[in-house]
Each structure stands twice: as C-alpha cells, then as structure tokens.
Write a structure and sequence with these properties.
Layout: H1 3-28, H2 44-50, H3 54-62, H4 78-84, H5 88-96, H6 111-117, H7 125-139, H8 149-157
Helix pairs in contact: 2-3, 2-4, 3-5, 4-5, 4-6, 5-7
Length: 168
C-alpha cells in the first residue's frame, strides 16, 4: 500500500522536473559554464544537478559550495536530485566531498534508496558509479534498503534519524 504513494510522489516530481527542465532549457544556451542559473540563483549546486552539469558540480563541490543546500519546493538536496535522476557519477562526487548521506526531503525520501531501484543500464559507467555509491553508503552504515519514507520522517521526529552513531 505504501508503494502507491511513493510512485505517485515520483510521478509528480518527474512532472515538476520536466516543467523545470523546459524552463531551464529556455535559458540554458544563454549561460556560460560557471554562471549562476537564473532559475536557481540561491541554490547553485541544485541548479548544476538539475542541468546535468557534472563539471560544474565537481567545481562547486571542490569549493564546498551547496553540498547540502535545499530546494524550496520539497527540501530535497543535490544528492537526492542526482540520485532520483540516475546521475550516479554526480552522487559519487557529492559523497566524496562530504554531502550528507542521511538527508531526506519533506516526504522522507533519501538518496540511498534510489541506488537499489535505479534503471541505469547494468555494466555502464553510470552503473559502475552506482555500485561505488552503494559501497560508500554501506561503509558509512547507511541501511540498504533504507526505511520507507514514513518511517524516516517518524525516526527524524523522534531524533533517531540518522541513527545514533551514524557515520556522516
């Protein structure tokens, strides 16, 4: 029963992303690499992730900029957005630079769960990055599969997410 709300949430997020993607594509050609996206002026890392600009993500991450910034619509992080869109090399960059693997959005969704349900072509470069992400999450004690979103929200409210002693 809980799968249906998650599927609905993903569909709504995809629809919202497509709307953003359309808006972004209208301005994308006018921007130079490194310029702040006018659609995401206060959240440059999320803008870079939403535009699939891996080099810009790498540059911002190296400077520690926006690793855990939050999207105003749903409180998602760059890592959640990257995982949701199967950008596993980007997720790996974010983890390697210290992004919070335990962060969840306002619905209780965490990036780690997407690693197990990803539809990337097995054996591809993206899949190899996904497998490295899984290893890095497990090495930090991240539960795979993670608790469902409702459980994460309840655990967070009770002060138990991330779990006590969790490695960040």
């Amino acid at each position: 029963m809980r799968v249906l709300p998650v599927i609905l949430a993903v569909c709504l997020c995809c629809a919202a992303c497509k709307k953003k993607e359309h808006a972004v594509s209208q301005h994308h050609d006018d921007r130079k690499v490194g310029e702040v996206d006018p659609n995401y002026p206060h959240i440059p890392m999320i803008g870079a992730v939403m535009n699939s600009e891996t080099d810009e993500v790498r540059k911002l991450a190296a400077q520690g900029i926006g690793l855990n910034e939050r999207a105003p619509e749903d409180r998602s992080t760059p890592m959640i957005n990257a995982a949701e869109t199967d950008q596993w090399p980007v997720v790996e960059i974010l983890i390697d630079h210290g992004a919070d693997i335990w962060a969840h959005d306002k619905f209780g969704v965490v990036a780690g769960g997407y690693a197990l349900t990803s539809l990337v072509l097995r054996g591809s470069n993206e899949d190899q990055a996904r497998l490295r992400v899984i290893e890095k999450l497990r090495a930090r004690g991240f539960p795979l599969p993670p608790p469902d979103p409702d459980q994460i929200l309840a655990l967070d409210k009770a002060g138990k997410w991330p779990p006590p002693g969790a490695q960040r």
